[in-house]
Amino acid sequence: MDIYPLLRPLLFSLEAEQAHTVTLKLLAAAQKTGVLKLATPALTAKPVNAMGLVFNNPVGLAAGLDKNGDYIDTLATLGFGFIEIGTVTPRPQPGNPKPRLFRLPEHQAIINRMGFNNLGIGHLLAQVQNSQYRGVLGINIGKNYDTPIANAIEDYLIGLRLAYPLASYITLNISSPNTQNLRQLQQGDEIKNLLAQLKEEQQHLQQTHHRYVPLVVKIAPDLTDEEIAHIAKLLLAYAIDGVIATNTTIAREAIAGHPLASQAGGLSGAPVKAQSTHVVSRLSAELGGKIPIIAAGGILTAQDAQEKLAAGASLVQIYSGLIYRGPELIADIVNSL
């Protein structure tokens, strides 16, 4: 029985960030007692091979929901084919001032300006080591807010080196709109330098650890077709293993007139769906199947997921859809495949 529709009005009566914390704690309690497993529908395995990894099914959890890796085993119980935790930074940081998370139920949307609030990569890695989960685990890394953009590569190198032994794949978050100047890492010489140095370090780490951990880049939905083509060429040139399309948008056309439209931050959920699917489609055309695409952005139904896969994605990730639809969305998508 899906009890989320009964719980949702109660959770939505709470302030958004508080509801997020309460939901995760309720799920963790249900997992510890075994209730969560009983309440979660059994899923048929729908394996996908990508980046040299075998995903149990193509539906993953997007980064941002479990920034610190505190709920890996709980979230795994829901039936995800893979889980991505983070974004995590080298040093702990509080993120932006509250309130920084806003629901727009009329649009099935969320605005967030969390600002990479996390307890640091040391805490996250301890949580990974303590977890029982043995599925595909992505670790999403970023830079500290007070690291100058000129030194950003150093933060990504720290994250890559520390996460490498425990991650199934590592995502470079260079597209969050909530860390000042971060998105310029997607442009010009910045992205070339970043990819070149991280690829070199990946090869060094492969020899040190005797295992290959794929590198994935997460990009914004607010890119022009020319920028998408440029990034695609660089992903191929530097043999990057995968790309996530997309992060949240800074555009507000889809929610124009809403009282919260002027709030700063990244917009996710239904309003970003078309933008995200367009980026997936353009990337697919440019990459020609050489690099797998993980689609994220506006997946609230099984049909939304099918559209992303039809546009050229190999895998999908959900976050806002989980807030509005609940864990049943995972089974809906997997069973529709």
Walkthrough of the structure:
This protein is α/β, with parallel strands linked by helices. It has one domain (4-336): Alpha-Beta Barrel (TIM Barrel), CATH 3.20.20. The chain is 40% helix and 17% strand. α7 links the parallel β8 (169-173) and β9 (215-219). The longest helix has 22 residues, at 188-209. It is globular. The two termini are 22 Å apart. 48% of the residues are buried. The model has no long low-confidence stretch (mean pLDDT 97).
Question: Summary?
Answer:
The protein has 337 residues and is of the alpha/beta class. The chain has helices at 4-12, 16-33, 35-39, 72-76, 121-130, 152-163, 188-209, 225-237, 273-287, 302-311, 320-325, 328-336, and strands spanning 48-50, 53-55, 59-61, 82-88, 101-104, 109-112, 136-141, 169-173, 215-219, 242-245, 266-269, 293-296, 315-318.
